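User: I'm writing a tutorial on reading structure tokens. Could you give me a worked example: one chain, its sequence, then its tokens, then a sentence or two explaining what the tokens reveal?
Assistant: Sure. Here is the example chain.
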Amino acid sequence: MGQEHGRGIQPGAGNSRSGRFDREFSSGDSGDYGTGAPNAGGASCPACSPYATSIGGTSLGIPTGSGSATTQVGWGNNITYMAFSGIINDPPFSNGFIGGSGGGESTFFAKPSWQKAIPGKGRQQPDISGPADSFTGALLVLNGQVGAIGGTSWASPVFSAIWSLALEKAGHALGQAAPLIATLPPGAVTDIIPIDSVTNPAGIIFDSNGSTYYSPTALAAPLFSTAQFYGAIPLINPDDLTFGTDSSLTVTKGWDNVTGWGVPAGASFIKAVAALK
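And here are its predicted structure tokens:
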């Protein structure tokens, strides 16, 4: 999905019940699309339409530091290469942001009435999220080769399947999902919030000039306004890979421009949607 282009369009009340089917679109895999700000035209179309439901992304199975418990975080990865072919990179080579949930405020579509409780003047996205990070993604076997798939183009059909189950339970069409998601009761959607880790990678490089300490934030940079994230060193390569670092987009309590209102809370989500009239 590409960035939005076009002239300003003034939406109506939101088209919450018109039409028999919802139109779900992925919010994109490039964060703020390099604009450096969520309201600088980085929103993805057609997900930015007020008549579409925009699906963002999360990373699954992130350790919480409490026993074996894991959680989800907003999808956004940075990577820093600390060595290559057994030779330490001095200094470490920061590749920065390599992918994450698209989102932000439209500069062309005005904010629909059902988004009045969230900031901005334009249509905001995403509305809700699903699993999207290929580093924590679904395994795929193709021609005998094992790999993983990800992206909001994976999250979107995952949400579509859950929404279909909800409609089946409801027994009738409900129209566009986005306005309805914004009205669901507590417990139907799981809010995604930032997490931090006391074990984020850090280290010291010794060379002819002495020693240089690299803090977790220095290795994860650039971080824009992100203050909490999870870092790890994969077993395959000695790299610093971060989770929850989505360009200039940030996860907050409640609605945010990385995960929307959060992720469907399983059966609770289905029951809550089915109860809508």
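What the tokens reveal: Confidence is low (pLDDT under 50) at residues 4-19. Residues 53 and 178 are 5 Å apart (CA to CA).
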